[in-house]
Amino acid sequence: MANMEEVISKADKLYEREMLDQALPLYLEALKDLKGEMRPYVLRRIAECYFYKENPEIDNALRYIEEAIGEGGNFRDRIFHFMILSEKDPEKAIKEARELLREAEEKKLEDVLPELYNSIGLLLWGDESEEYFKRALELSKKVNDLENYVLSLQNLSYLEKERGNNSKALEYLQEAMKAVEDVMKSLPKSRKKEFIASYSDLYDQAVSLAMDMEDYDLAMEIANRGKVS
User: Fold this and answer.
1) Is 1 helix (H, G, I), strand (E, B) or coil?
2) Which helix (H) or strand (E) holds 171?
3) Which of 71, 91, 205, 216 is most deeply packed, by most CB within 10 A?
4) Count of CB atoms within 10 A of residue 228's CB?
5) What span, in angstroms and rounded, lies between the C-alpha atoms of 79 and 94?
6) Is-contact 118 136, C-beta < 8 A?
7) CA dihedral for 136, 140, 145, 150, sign (positive or negative)
8) In terms of C-beta density within 10 A (0-12 exposed, 13-18 middle, 19 or more buried), how is residue 101 classed?
9) Residue 180: count of CB within 10 angstroms of its CB
10) If you write DSSP's letter for every residue of 59-85 in order, what string do you get?
11) Handedness of CA 139, 189, 205, 84 (dihedral sign)
12) Domains in the chain and their CATH numbers?
């Protein structure tokens, strides 16, 4: 068991560094004789590796996430399932997502609804998705879900940029950066660098938007905000 835990730990470290092609064979090795509560976790990671790697393998991703769901996977695994499925059968994925949404709303699963709203918004992408992103924004703020709060603001920003409303797009990103930085203030110095690095895509998005607006001073300011010495 100790050896298996070491293999999973090594795979996790590679996964966190986005070295998915190297992490995948380790997760597959660990899975061979794995039982118990760790099995759905490893199955999910394998599905993620297949889905997010440079050359995605959608059928394999679906196979492993379906196995994870069948072996006690959680509600988020079911969200991930329809996101993978959307690459193969968008209509079926949207139908599955709406059924999952009805279930989550009936059960008032506030811990997963923000992620679900964001995911459905991404599937629909366009005017209809704005409603879902705003639902995610409202609920994630209520339940103190920073990750989905920031994500919903990023999604709304992308929508406004697509519409040509760069100023409004930047407002959303400024709100997201403020939320991240407010949380960071309460963290010990040893954790700040890692924390803000986990939101690097937010700062990259804001820098890119400022550059598009030809506000180079703002772009530099945002880039500096996204760093902790």
Assistant:
1) coil
2) helix 166-185
3) 205
4) 14
5) 11
6) yes
7) positive
8) middle
9) 19
10) HHHHHHHHHHHHTT--HHHHHHHHHHH
11) negative
12) 1-73 (1.25.40)
